[in-house]
Amino acid sequence: MCYALFLSTDSSEDLTRYNSDLISFQLPDPVDQRHLSTLKNREKWYVGSISGCSCTFRHLLSVELGFGEPVDWYGEEENELRATAELYRTIAGLVSRGHEVDCLDIWEGARKSDIQAKVVNLSEVAEKAFRLFENYHFVFQ
Predict the structure, then answer these.
(1) How far apart are CA 78 and CA 98, in angstroms?
(2) In this predicted structure, what is the pLDDT of residue 52?
(3) pLDDT tens, 68-79?
(4) Are 47 and 6 in contact (CB under 8 A)?
(5) What span, in angstroms and rounded, lies between the C-alpha atoms of 35 and 6?
(6) Less Cβ around it within 10 Å: N or C end of the chain?
C-alpha cells in the first residue's frame, strides 16, 4: 500500500521541467481515471517522489493537526521535507502566475467517498509548514 498524488492545473506548461531527484511530474496512468475525475482542471499529472510512488512527501493522516513546521519528535526524513518544499514551490509558482491548481493525496485502496475537500490559501501556509493530508483534495488559492 502507498500514497498516490495527483495534481491538475489550467496551465499548459510542461511540469516535467520541475522534475528532480526528489520529485517527478508525469502523465497519469489511465487506470487512475477514478481518482482523476476528482480534479478540477484539464491538465492532469501524477506526482511521484524519490520512492517511485508518492510516499516520500510530508503526509499526515489527521487534518485536525493542520499544517505545521517539522518537529524533532515526529521524525520526518530530509528527503520528505525537501520533496514537499519542491512541490510547494511548483504549486505556488503556478498560482502566483494566475493559474488554477488542485491536488489529490490518496491512500491506495481509498474509495471516492473517503475523499474530503480543503481550500488552501498559500499566503497563509508557509513552505516549511505545508504537508499533505491523506485522502484530501486540496484547491489552492
Answers:
(1) 31
(2) 86
(3) 999 988 889 999
(4) yes
(5) 8
(6) N
Written as nine digits, the cell of 61 is: 493522516
Report how many domains make up the chain: 1
Residue in 62, 59, 54, 70 with CA at minimum distance from that of residue 131? 59
CB 54 within 8 A of CB 84: no
Residues of the chain under the 50 pLDDT cut: none
Rounded to the nearest 5°, which phi and psi values hold at 36?
A: -65, -25
Helix (H, G, I), strand (E, B) or coil at 61: coil
Classify residue 75 as left (phi > 0), alpha (psi -120 to 50) or beta. left
Can you tell me the distance from the alpha carbon of 33 to that of 11, in angstroms, rounded to the nearest whole number?
20
d(CA 29, CA 117): 23
Per the document, the length of the chain is 141
- Look at residue 1 in the predicted model and tell me its pLDDT: 56
Interior/surface letters 21-58, b for 16+ CB within 10 angstroms, e for the rest: ebbbbeebeeeeeebbebbebebbbbbbbbeebbbbbb
The boundaries of the domain holding residue 15 are 3-140
